[in-house]
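ingest -> validate -> predict -> emit
validate: passed (alphabet ok, no gaps, 283 aa)
predict: started
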Amino acid sequence: MGKVCAGIVLYNPSLDRLKENIKSIYNQVEEVFVVDNASNNLMEIKKILSKYQRCLLIENKKNMGIAKALNQLCSKAYKDEFEWILTLDQDTVSPENLIERLRKYSYGKKIGIICPDVHYEGINSLNKQNSSIKTRHTMEIKACMTSASLTCLKAWKEVKGFRNNYFIDYVDNEFCMKLRISGYKILRVNNVYISHELGELGTIKLFGKEIRFSRHSPWRYYYMIRNNRAFIREYHKYIPVFKEKLKLWYIALIGAVTAKNKKETIRYIVKGYIDGKNMNRRI
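emit:
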């Protein structure tokens, strides 16, 4: 494996969590690139980054979204001749030796992403795995989160990066789909874990069954619904369409039932569904 860097996308981050984030990854990579999407606490962010010599900040004057910021990180890394980039959410704290443990699986043919397993904070169990999977070091999967994923920059370039107009949700799903269509593998390392925050968690009873959910803002449901529908429309030849549509309606139902502001949330859900049909595929 060649040169490895890390890239972090910021938008109004918790400063304490950001400190942990950078501290945990800084000595594992050659450089850390940071894109800030017009955070309100930018001055405080700059003070934190100033303590690290190998940190480069890219400032956006407005919130350009996760997808655009990820492309900015990858573009900078590619120009600086890095071969791999570890993309991180602003609240991700990397385990010790994360890079070392992921990169040893980078020598296979057409590896697009190497990722860890994920432990969702607030949910006790790790991702369900059967006994046969547990015995394997790695497993080829269909998609993974961008956070703590080690991405091959050659592959990123070949598939023309992340879809900018997705903005936030389904950004990782769409990128992983393009990689797989182009023949790249996505590997999960089963004995490496990261923690991921799900936001405001709650439980409801639906059809007699207790269901855990993560509550989101109305505008977030807009992107979830819009991008899910656009994803189905674009990649219907490669996915189980009925299953994906069920997921779309499940998201809509959970949003409508659990939202604090139901009227506004439903309005955003409907708008997302309509806009998802008309979304430009080429952007």
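The first strand starts at residue 4 and ends at 10.
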